[in-house]
Amino acid sequence: MLELTKTLVETWGPPGYEHRIRNRIHEEVAALADETWVDGLGNLICRVGGGEKKVLIAAHMDEIGLMANYQEPESGYLRFTSLGGLRHDTLNGNRVQFEDGTVGVIAVQEGGGKALSDFYIDVQEDGNGNATPVGQPAAFMREMQVRGERIVAKSLDDRIGCVVAIEVMRRLKRETPHELYFAFTVQEEVGLRGAKTAAQGVRPDIGIAIDVTGSGDQIRGSKMQVKLGGGAAIKVHDPGLVVPIAIKNWMIERCEADGIPYQLELLTGGRTDASVIQLTDSGVPSGCISIPTRYLHTTSETVDIGDVQACIDLLSGLLTNPIELQQAH
């Protein structure tokens, strides 16, 4: 799992430019699926099995990034716009890599930092000017580190969700009573776009997003029940999804039956692919298995290996057993 995680988090792929990470994931899953294809928006979709229930499992491939949109005529520094939710308090001094391989350093104007227009990127190779033109996308650079039971890396949002999906595909070995569609989706960070087309194409009976969530165990952080080391986080609610009781109970009962540590997630900010999957056709009962994560949208996102394993165990259990959702009355 750690080798796969390192490979995925260090692969370049900001929103709308997921071709490299998609190719890398395809190398991992091609032999694990009965069928794979790329839809019109760029999602990689893998079908496994052919049972009665159609289940869509979505994990997004893209990572937060930026795009150079203006070059200062005298200095040659690049101004940029965001591809996803950039945190201004973490930008200064970070390195980014453009699609052509050019590495740049983000800096901030003296006294600035509140607006994105206060920042610029130094990509000078020498005193003669820039090494890359405007219009190029970029992603952040940082090697993965393992600290005991913790993984520290950029783009764990949501490459760790992709790891969970791939590891479950490996465990299934194509054996499932259901018809599964593992969707590695695009452009989640800029509006959940890939999940929408994936769900429209698959038309599932049930939707499951695999994504990260925040943690409430940081000093003076937001109050939240989820913590690192507490197990898989089963979503109850976020601003884009009120999880149906039947889906929530299905996940809880699986954890309790299999002895999987879990915690309940009530998120006050942020959405996942499940938010748009639920709105497909006349509605799709959808939920989310979340990986607790510290320092989201930074180059040092942090997860607990035990929590990741709990998410793998939970998703595997859900997909290898009969699905009987108990509707609320």
What can be said about this structure in brief?
The protein is built from seven helices and 20 strands. By secondary structure, the chain is α+β, with helices and mostly antiparallel strands.
Features:
about 325 residues, alpha+beta, six-stranded antiparallel beta sheet, 20 strands
What profile does the largest beta sheet have? 9 strands, mixed
The dominant shape is: globular
Distance between the termini: 41 Å
Q: Roughly how much helix do the residues carry, as a percent range?
A: 10-25%
Number of helices: 7
Low-confidence stretches: none
- Roughly what is the average pLDDT, rounded to an integer? 94
Q: Helix/strand/pairing class, anyone?
A: alpha+beta
Percent of sequence in beta strands: 25-35%
Order of helices and strands: HHEEEEEEEEEEEEEHEHEEEHEHEEH
Count of beta strands: 20
Cα-based radius of gyration, to the nearest Å: 20 Å
Topology:
Layout: H1 2-9, H2 19-29, E1 35-38, E2 44-48, E3 54-60, E4 65-71, E5 78-83, E6 95-98, E7 103-108, E8 119-122, E9 124-126, E10 129-130, E11 137-140, E12 145-147, E13 150-153, H3 156-172, E14 179-185, H4 193-202, E15 206-213, E16 232-238, E17 241-242, H5 245-258, E18 262-266, H6 274-277, E19 286-292, E20 301-304, H7 305-320
Parallel strand pairs: 3-14, 3-15, 15-19, 16-18
Antiparallel strand pairs: 1-2, 2-14, 4-5, 4-11, 6-7, 6-11, 7-8, 9-10, 12-13, 13-20, 16-17, 16-19
Helix pairs in contact: 1-3, 3-7, 5-7
